[in-house]
Amino acid sequence: MASQTASRRWRTLKAIALAVIAVGCAALLDRNTFFGRTIRGPIAQFDPTLSDFVVYHLFHPPPPTGEVAIAAIDDRSLARLGRFPWPREVEARLVDALRADGAKVIAFDIFFSEPDPEDTARQAVATELHAAGVPITSIRRAFSNRGDDALAAAMRAQGSVFIAYAFNPHLSFQHPVSYRSATETPLLDPPPVAYNLVVRLPGAHPATAIAYDYIAPEAELNRAARGTGYVDIDEDEADGRMRSYPAAVLFRGRYAAPLFLAATQAFLGDPLLKIGVGANGIASVALGDQVIPVDEMGRMMIHYRGAAGTIPRYSVADIIDGCVPASDLRGKMVLVGVTAHALGDRIVTPVGSDFPGVEMQATAADNVLRGDFIHRSVAERGEEKLAGWLLGICIGVVAGLMSAGVSLLLLLLATLGYFAYVLFRFEAGGALVGLMFPLVAVFFSYLAATSYRYFAEGREKRYLRSAFEMYLHPAVLASVIEDPAGLKLGGQRRHLSVLFADIVGFTERAERLDPEPLVALLNTYMSVMTEVILKSGGVVDKLMGDGIMAFWGPPLKMENHARAAISCALEMLDALKRLGEKDERFRDVRIGIGIATGDAIVGNLGGERHFDYSAVGDTVNLASRIEGLTRHFAVNLLVNRAALSEAGAGYIARNVGLVRVKGRDRAEEIFEVVGREGDGVDPSYYERFNRAVAPAANGKPAEQMLRALLAERPDDRVAAMYLEQLRESRFSAAHEVIFEFDSK
Question: Does 6 lie in the same domain as 100?
Answer without folding.
Answer: no
